[in-house]
Amino acid sequence: MSEKFLDKAYDLETPEATQDFYNQWAASYDAEIAENGYATPGRIAEALAQFQSDLSEPVLDFGCGTGLSGLALRRQGFETVDGMEPSAEMLAQAQAKGAYRKITQIDTANRKPIPRGAYRLVTGCGVLGTGAAPPEVFDMILHALPRGGLFTFSYNDHALADRAYTGKLIEWVDVGAARLLFQEHGEHLPGLDLKSTVYVIEKA
User: Fold this and answer.
1) Phi, psi (5° rounding) for residue 104?
2) How confident is the model at residue 129, as a pLDDT?
3) Beta carbons within 8 Å of 193's beta carbon, 6+ residues apart
4) How far is CA 84 from the centre of its chain?
5) Domain range spanning residue 161?
6) What predicted TM-score, i.e. pTM, was given to this entire model?
7) Going by DSSP bridges, is the β-strand pair 178-189/194-203 parallel, antiparallel, or unpaired?
8) Per-residue pLDDT tens over the stretch 25-46
9) Engineered SS bond to 108: which of 15, 35, 90, 117, CB 3.0-4.6 Å?
């Protein structure tokens, strides 16, 4: 019986521990996630498509993992998807799926891995939250977007319960630095009875 990782994914406390954990999980990640009905990648792709009619414009799938989110974007009709991910083993799985134009390994010591203005469309599927990217990554992504850029992302129930994450969204919207275009709570991992809220925000 293969080792299960999903129940441990929300207890990681450092970037190093997170990267090591996902490197170990990479080979069995897709199968374990599929067992639990991973719904958020498709929901994010559908949400972005509601506000982006030009499907030829490149999308950056930040924290792309094994590429399930990239596949969902391609299935939605987005023609050009690039991936960024800190875990080398996860990136190897993503590369094999053939969904990405290019993939880049993120150096966790680099606080600005996205070149400013390089992408107008960025997605973050299950990236921001406990056991994954810290809240500051939200600021980094928004600063990298040009005015009018769209960030489509999810907060699962764990992130929604953590004001460090929800507070970032509130800060940007309350001061008028971003506009909330879309918000929908729905299935994330039904097998674990875990839900997520998908958001689309536009940088002002």
Assistant:
1) -130, 130
2) 84
3) none
4) 10
5) 13-203
6) 0.89
7) antiparallel
8) 666 767 777 777 889 999 999 9
9) 15
